[in-house]
Specification:
The complex is a heterodimer of chains A (325) and B (725). Chain A has 325 residues and is of the alpha/beta class. In chain A, 41% of the residues lie in helices and 20% in strands. Chain A has helices at 3-8, 23-26, 32-40, 76-82, 117-134, 160-169, 180-189, 209-218, 231-235, 257-282, 295-321, and strands at residues 53-54, 58-64, 86-91, 97-103, 138-144, 148-155, 195-200, 222-229, 242-246, 252-255, 285-290. In chain A, the strands form three sheets. A six-stranded mixed β-sheet of chain A has the order 6-5-4-7-8-11, with helices on both faces. Mean pLDDT of chain A is 76; it is low at 1-19, 44-58 and 316-325. Helix content of chain B is 27%, strand content 24%. Chain B has 18 helices and 33 strands. In chain B, helix 3 (56-73) runs antiparallel to helix 18, helix 5 (108-121) runs antiparallel to helix 7 (155-165) and helix 13 (404-415) crosses helix 14 (430-440). The chains are: A alpha/beta (325), B alpha/beta (725). Strand 9 (242-246) of chain A pairs parallel with strand 2 of chain B, so a sheet runs across the interface.
């Protein structure tokens, strides 16, 4: 869903999810794990084929030997037939390594629909984690504000999901949002490529968003950004003049919403558009999630993107050797 | 409506606070927590008249609450009409005008007259007024009854005219007596009227309230409950005042030219600014006062005693004058010549003058030259007494039995006013009774020697008798140290009307008096010599002999200094009483009648029966002329009257007098009076506090405040819950 679609309310209005579970009702379930289970239940359950190549039994392609390649993987039979050195590549059958990066800055504690953005983001992340975990994928968790506050490496062990859920249930304790240091830290910590799901409200300066997300992309990670915003933040539908207080900085500002609404929306649209364009330029899947949007729709979007990305990968790999796995 | 603490009403200004709050908090009272203000720009608050109108009731309520709070703290009360307001229609007023000597100070009497005039002008027609003047005594100028007889329209001016005719005298101030007299006069008038509690009773005191004023009379007087004293204080133009007094006259023989030195005390008032004065004798033979003037330094509030040589010329009377003082009414001290009086004492007895076991031995030593007396003791045996001896004697002491012939002569002496002291010896036996009978001219006297075990003491002593009054003070009244080994028991018939002055512990008379004619026969039933008693060896012996001498009139005229208003004892005494050599020049040419020449030259004839001259109302030298001769005495201003510092009104109030605020000219108001005003304000505040405490209106105000607060809270809550548009 694009930013414009989200702001115009397409598929976002509570109670208009067409058979989907209303987030307001869903958030009444206290257990994060149960919440995720309810959402994931009914979805197709299977094992992803990892798009990444490792040294497994399933051959994927040949590549001409270049200096520096390990000579152990030279296909000597093919050398005998063609007198050329080819390296045999096999499809890595290991499971997906997914990192959930959750923004726990204080602005995530805001919510106008009876639950906060942090709760929504946690539920969203829990849904993904549950979904991936049940497929046998390794799921890790990192929470951050202006630095990494909590880090759980990807695992797929019994009981680990519960630990993840507990980590997601924690209230945001941070102060300001700053994507640079946490993302840079995460990029340094990850030595294997995997899936990184970033959930944040992005209420920070995105002038350096290109560089910040670039840390992850440079490491070859597949990055998905879930941009979570409250409907009040999107629409700024306040009516009475009031003294608005910034939860992160504590700064007070007298605002007359009638006067400020147009300007606010304009600046917000610019912000969202800039974020989306940056993600596109980096090849990052960008999803804007108003907090009143149904979780299963979000999961569908996610899976849809994953399938699309997989097709693209396979499509790029197929012409070389004329074999499809 | 009045307030106990009206300053708290300034708190009403605090209503500006809710007004301001209502102006500025309309738009900003709502606070909204938002995730980020990064897309917002502040907007200026807009004051909308519509919003102010919406909360106008709340604003009014809050303003009312603030006002009520200030109102309650100001402690409101409803002033009741005072007692004075209720009965202002009629007052009984006793107006006291001070005419003492201290009012002679410059400008004070005119102020007093003006003050009295203003009081009289402020009277209501229904008021009853009594006007009195006072100094040492109190005199009624206009009584209540006389006031009623005066024309109501002209009463005030008539009485003021009478007051203006008065002038201050020279007497000291007895304010206590004047106040008591005024209060009693009001009570007497009220009792005669019979309408109690419908009148306000007020004593108005117009005085300088000098510190020397006597308030002793108030100490023993219960001031009437509904009578108030208003003090109209007459302030002095100057606080400088010094006074002069002679402490000792010519006692110090070290003066120039062999003249004596008199000790003079200069007393300066506490608030004085002048401290240097000079002293000189007036009319003392000097060419100018500067020849013999003595410079004196007396600090403010202190006394200085200086020695000044007696005047060169022994004038009939001298004046010691103090110069350099602003108030001269007390700067002259009059001095009458102190003359040594010759006293003849006839001792009839056969005693050896050198035998300490005889009474004469002690009598000779008792009557030595002392002070102003020059005693001349003439000793004669009973048979050698001449008529001349008897007639020239001021006192006759008889220690031997006298026969009827001598006794008749002595009786005539007694009958003419003389005093005879008869001392009974043990050997006298029955002769004692005969001697008493001969001297007193009575029959039936019995005498016998008393049986004394070890010793007898004086049991009962009549200290009220003039003869023994000098021992009346407790420190002198102990006679128990005097033991009598022997004494006689005398039985005198009741018809003789003997008066027992002292008796032994056995009940027998020790000293009794028989009045014979105008004189008296004193009988001592025991001798004072050691074989009879220890009396001659005691400290009571000499004073008793001199007391007997004084009792007989022999010492009359010894004192020459008196104060104004003090009665001077005079009486027609035998010629021998005035047989002073230096003052008997007029003996042969003296007037046939007793008369006194006052300092102003007026002659005051005295009745034969009068015992005292009381018209000592002028300071100066007085002269008593009598057939027996003349003598001078000086009358001076009382030292108390010279203490001109202002007495605190609290001193009067402390004696139970209900004092209203004193009135005084503001320009000349001394600090003490300002303090009195502050005290008066404090008293009024206390009255208001009592009234407020009685009414407790603040409780109702607080109840109202609570009700308004509840309404305000309910309204504010409702407005808060109401959806804002």
């Amino acid at each position: 869903m694009t930013a414009k679609a989200a702001q115009s309310g397409q598929g976002a209005a509570p109670g208009k999810t067409g058979g989907m579970i209303d987030p307001v009702s869903l958030m009444r379930i206290k257990s994060m794990e149960l919440r995720a289970k309810v959402i994931v239940e009914g979805f197709w359950k299977g094992i992803h084929r990892s798009p990444y190549h490792g040294f497994s039994v399933e051959f994927t392609e040949y590549r001409q030997y270049t200096l520096g390649d390990d000579p152990r993987y030279i296909d000597w039979r093919l050398y005998a037939r063609s007198d050329r050195y080819y390296i045999k590549k096999f499809e890595d059958e290991t499971n997906l390594r997914c990192h959930l990066l959750i923004d726990h800055s204080r602005s995530m504690g805001y919510g106008s629909a009876g639950y906060t953005k942090a709760q929504y983001a946690g539920t969203l992340a829990a849904t993904l984690a549950y979904f991936l975990f049940t497929q046998g994928d390794a799921v890790g968790l990192a929470t951050f504000d202006d630095q990494i506050r909590q880090y759980m490496p990807p695992r797929n062990r019994p009981g680990y999901l519960r630990r993840l859920m507990l980590g997601l249930e924690a209230d945001p304790q941070g102060r300001t949002t700053d994507l640079g240091p946490p993302l840079q830290g995460i990029a340094q910590m990850l030595n294997k490529r995997g899936l990184i799901v970033l959930v944040s409200d992005m209420l920070t300066s995105i002038d350096r968003l290109d560089a910040d997300l670039g840390y992850l992309c440079a490491g070859g990670h597949d990055v998905v950004l879930f941009h979570v915003l409250d409907s009040a933040e999107l629409n700024f539908d306040f009516d009475a003049p009031a003294l608005f207080m910034d939860v992160e900085t504590g700064r007070n500002m007298y605002i007359d919403p009638v006067d400020a609404r147009a300007s606010y929306k304009g600046m917000l649209e610019n912000h969202l558009a800039k974020a989306e364009s940056t993600c596109r330029s980096l090849g990052i899947d960008y999803h804007l999630f108003p907090t009143d949007r149904a979780f299963d729709l979000a999961l569908l979007d996610f899976l849809h993107d994953r399938m699309r990305r997989r097709k693209l990968v396979r499509h790029r790999a197929a012409p070389k050797l004329g074999r499809m796995v | 409506m009045s307030f106990l603490y009206p300053l708290f009403l300034a708190g009403i200004a605090a209503i500006g606070i809710p007004v301001i709050l209502h102006l500025i908090r309309r738009q900003t009272r709502k606070r909204v927590t938002f995730s980020s203000l990064m897309f917002l720009r502040t907007t200026m608050p807009r004051f909308k008249s519509r919003s102010r109108l919406e909360n106008l009731l709340l604003l009014i309520l809050r303003c009312v609450i603030v006002c009520l709070l200030a109102f309650a703290f100001a402690r409101p009360f409803l002033p009741k009409p005072t007692e004075q307001d209720r009965v202002a229609r009629a007052r009984r007023i006793a107006l006291l005008v001070d005419t003492s000597a201290s009012m002679r100070r410059a400008g004070m009497w005119s102020q007093a007259v003006n003050e009295a005039r203003s009081v009289l002008q402020g009277l209501n027609p229904a008021d009853r007024v009594c006007v009195m003047s006072f100094d040492q005594g109190t005199r009624t100028l206009v009584g209540f009854e006389q006031w009623e007889t005066l024309d109501p329209t002209r009463r005030g001016s008539i009485v003021a005219e009478q007051i203006s005719k008065l002038s201050p005298g020279w007497a000291l101030t007895d304010a206590g007596n004047a106040l008591v007299t005024a209060a009693e006069a009001i009570q007497d008038d009220e009792a005669g009227d019979g309408q109690q509690h419908t009148w306000t009773h007020e004593v108005v005191l117009i005085s300088d309230l000098q510190q020397g004023s006597s308030l002793d009379a108030l100490r023993a007087y219960e001031w009437p409950e509904h009578t108030e004293l208003t003090v109209k204080l007459i302030p002095a133009r100057s606080m400088n005042n010094a006074t002069v007094q002679i402490v000792a006259q010519g006692d110090d023989p070290l003066g120039p030219d062999g003249r004596g030195l008199s000790h003079v005390r200069i007393t300066n008032s506490p608030a004085a600014t002048l401290e240097r004065f000079s002293l000189h004798w007036a009319d003392a033979g000097y060419t100018s006062p500067s020849d013999q003037a003595i410079e004196v330094y007396a600090p403010a509030g202190h006394s200085s005693v200086v020695r000044i040589p007696s005047p060169k010329v022994a004038a009939a009377g001298q004046r010691l004058v103090l110069t350099g003082d602003e108030q001269d009414f007390d700067n002259t001290f009059y001095l009458a010549p102190d003359v040594a009086q010759k006293v003849n004492i006839l001792f009839i007895g056969d005693d050896d003058p050198n035998d300490p076991r005889d009474m004469l031995y002690y009598a000779r030593r008792a009557f030595g030259t002392a002070g102003g007396i020059d005693p001349n003791l003439v000793v004669r045996t009973p048979g050698a007494v001449s008529q001349q001896n008897v007639t020239s004697a001021h006192l006759i002491i008889v220690t031997d039995a006298v026969n009827s012939q001598r006794g008749a002569a002595l009786r005539r002496y007694i009958e003419s006013g003389g005093t005879v002291l008869l001392v009974l010896r043990p050997a006298d036996g029955p002769d004692a009774a005969t001697t008493i009978a001969n001297l007193a001219g009575i029959e039936g006297v019995e005498s016998q020697e008393a049986d004394v075990e070890k010793y007898a003491m004086l049991g009962q002593i009549n200290f009220e008798h003039p003869l023994l009054a000098i021992f009346s003070e407790p420190r002198f009244a102990d006679f128990t140290q005097i033991h009598f080994w022997k004494h006689r028991r005398i039985n005198v018939p009741d018809a003789a009307k003997a008066r027992v002055l002292a008796s032994f512990d056995s009940g027998d008379p020790a000293l009794f008096e028989l009045n014979v004619g105008s004189g008296s026969l004193l009988v001592l039933t025991s001798g004072w010599h050691p074989p009879d008693s220890q009396f001659a060896l005691s400290s009571k012996f000499v004073p008793l002999l001199y007391s007997i001498l004084d009792y007989g009139g022999a010492l009359l005229g010894q004192r020459s200094q008196y104060f104004v208003g003090e009665p001077v004892p005079v009486r027609s005494v035998p010629v021998r009483a005035y047989s002073n050599e230096r003052l008997t020049a007029s003996l042969q040419t003296g007037p046939a009648q007793l008369q006194v020449r006052r300092p102003d030259g007026t002659m005051v004839p005295l009745d034969e029966n009068r015992r005292a001259f009381t018209q000592t109302d002028l300071p100066g030298i007085y002269r008593i002329d009598s057939p027996g001769g003349s003598r001078l005495f000086a009358v001076n201003l009382s030292a108390k009257e010279c203490q001109t510092a202002v007495m605190p009104v609290e001193d009067i109030e402390s004696l139970g007098v209900s004092v209203k605020q004193p009135s005084i000219a503001a320009a000349q108001r001394p600090q003490r009076t300002q303090n009195a005003e502050a005290e008066q304000r404090l008293k009024r505040h206390r009255d208001f506090a009592a009234l407020e405490s009685e009414q407790k209106l603040w409780r109702w105000v607080f109840a109202l405040l609570l009700a308004f607060s509840l309404v305000e809270m309910a309204l504010a809550g409702w407005l808060t819950r109401a959806p804002s548009t």
